[in-house]
Amino acid sequence: MTTTPRNILITGAGSGIGAAVAKVFTDAGDRVHLLDISADRLAQVAQELPTELVEQYPVDVTDFDAVQEAVAKVASHGSIDVLAGCAGVFDGLATVETTTRELWDRVIDINLTGTFNVVKPVAAQMISQKSGSIVLMSSIAAHRATPDGLAYDASKAGLEGMTRRLAVDLGPHGINANIVAPGVIRTGIRATSEEILGELVPDTNVGVGTNPELRDMLVPLRRAAEASEVASTVFFLAGEGASYISGDVIHVDGGWIAA
Ligand SMILES: NC(=O)c1ccc[n+]([C@@H]2O[C@H](COP(=O)([O-])OP(=O)(O)OC[C@H]3O[C@@H](n4cnc5c(N)ncnc54)[C@H](O)[C@@H]3O)[C@@H](O)[C@H]2O)c1
User: Fold this and answer.
1) What PANTHER family does the database record attribute to this sequence (predicted)?
2) What is the 3-state secondary structure (H, E, C) of 89-137?
């Protein structure tokens, strides 16, 4: 248990990796501030966590003003010690031919601009505290073009660039920034992305995550991971053990990037 609970802001906390991140921090006695576009998913996740350690923020990360308000509420608890930016959507295997302008805009707006919307006020708060850790969520898609769609690949590569700049800008203030690049993780991303993107997205029930034979060819550990295996990495990157790691991409992909 940590002695003084840290305030942890987690976006995309209503499902999958974000929900697992909430669990690992509350297990350590930290207070989690759960932000997600879905109030229902947030309530479900919160039910499984100690009530006294959980705050809920049903907010769309693309809504700049609503995000500023939510971040101010988190900061009113005294500090924002960690940002775990997990909100994201997946565009199936949309190619340059099947990616419409609308799909491109929506995926970039949620995955890339939505992360900026959160990072901007959080960075201001962390600069005023002179401490904090930012951990964002990339994907194998930033390094291998086949598992995901065009806009998703671009958004995740963009987030890795953003992370390097955050490390440069925030390092002098005692803040580190890193990004995790997961491979195949068992989560609800296909269903949630279809719900959020609607008709814009072609079939999401495709790709390495739905093809165990292909996955085993590409991934040396020959399995998908549980969300908790990504959450433990986020927890490490936000803690004392990673105090001198900044601007880095940590792959949690069963060795895929090495193969
Ligand atoms: N599952 C995988 O295999 C995998 C692999 C690599 C990277 N990732 C990344 O990990 C992150 C988490 O994905 P997951 O697999 O846990 O997916 P998930 O769908 O289970 O969880 C994502 C959450 O983000 C929320 N969200 C989506 N758009 C939002 C918005 N506009 N505002 C606020 N919340 C929003 C969703 O409601 C959902 O609860 C994503 O950034 C994803 O790109 C996942």
Assistant:
1) SHORT-CHAIN DEHYDROGENASES/REDUCTASES FAMILY MEMBER (PTHR42760)
2) CCCCCCCCCCCCHHHHHHHHHHHHHHHHHHHHHHHHHHHHHCCEEEEEE
Position 3 pLDDT exceeds 80: no
CA of 172 to the centre of ligand 1 (A): 30
Whether 164 and 247 have beta carbons less than 8 Å apart is answered as: yes
> Which of the listed residues 189, 249, 256 should we mutate to test ligand 1's pocket, taking the one with most ligand atoms within 8 A of CB?
189
Which atom from ligand 1 is nearest to the alpha carbon of 38? 37
pLDDT digits (tens, 9 = 90+) for 36-83: 999 999 999 999 999 999 999 999 999 999 999 999 999 999 999 999
Query: Are 85 and 118 a contacting pair, CB within 8 Å?
Result: yes
Q: Given the structure tokens 């987690």, which residue do they identify?
A: 10
Rounded-to-integer distance, Cα 165 and Cα 43, Å: 34
Residue 78 backbone zone (phi > 0: left; psi -120 to 50: alpha; other: beta):
left
Pocket test for ligand 1, best of 109, 179, 192 (most atoms within 8 A of CB): 192
DSSP 141-160: GGT-SSSS-HHHHHHHHHHH
What is the CATH superfamily name and number for domain 7-258? NAD(P)-binding Rossmann-like Domain (3.40.50.720)
Domain locations in the chain?
7-258
Report how far residue 21's alpha carbon sits from residue 50's, in angstroms, rounded to the nearest whole number: 14
Region 137-164 average pLDDT? 96
